[in-house]
Specification:
Structural class: mainly alpha
Number of strands: 0
Distance between the termini: 106 Å
Largest sheet: none
Helix content: 55-70%
């Protein structure tokens, strides 16, 4: 980024030595390690403060394993979950089918299994038995007087 080589550092060092002078250069040479130590301590303090704030926000952030977030492992987990759900669904369907089969008697017709007598026709409309019940709204009772009659003239045509 800055492209600073050893030759440029030597030139900067010579210029600083000429500008500052030999007396102050000895002071700077003694103070430089102290200043770098203070700078490093400041860095460590800031770093520990950031880590402690992260621990307060998400105390388990160190428990996350980046290998668990790899796309292949996520897909593998999804595939295992889908397989277990499919197995659970198939066992549920098999259980329901066996329950239905156990309720239906072997050798009976579908009408007999539903509780109908031989020769009885089930109603096509669930409200068809409401003709006798006057409390069913929207259903008028049908009488013989209201029923259309076939006349002899209609039969000839």
């Amino acid at each position: 980024m800055f492209d600073i080589g050893i030759d440029k550092l030597v030139v900067v060092g010579v210029l600083v030595g000429l500008i500052v002078g030999p007396e102050r250069l000895r002071e700077w040479r003694r103070a430089l390690p102290r200043q770098l130590g203070r700078l490093y301590a400041l860095y460590q303090q800031g770093r520990s403060q950031v880590v402690s704030e992260l621990d307060d926000l998400a105390p388990d952030w160190r428990e996350y394993d980046p290998r668990q977030l790899h796309p292949r492992s996520v897909l593998r987990d999804l595939e295992e979950t889908a397989k277990s759900a499919a197995i659970a669904a198939s066992t549920t369907v098999a259980t329901a089918a066996s329950e239905v089969a156990s309720e239906v008697k072997v050798g009976t017709s579908p009408g007999e299994a539903a509780g109908q007598r031989e020769g009885e026709v089930p109603p096509a409309d669930p409200l068809s038995r409401g003709d006798e019940n006057p409390d069913v709204p929207g259903r008028a009772s049908v009488t013989d007087d209201d029923a259309p009659r076939a006349s002899a003239e209609d039969a000839e045509a």
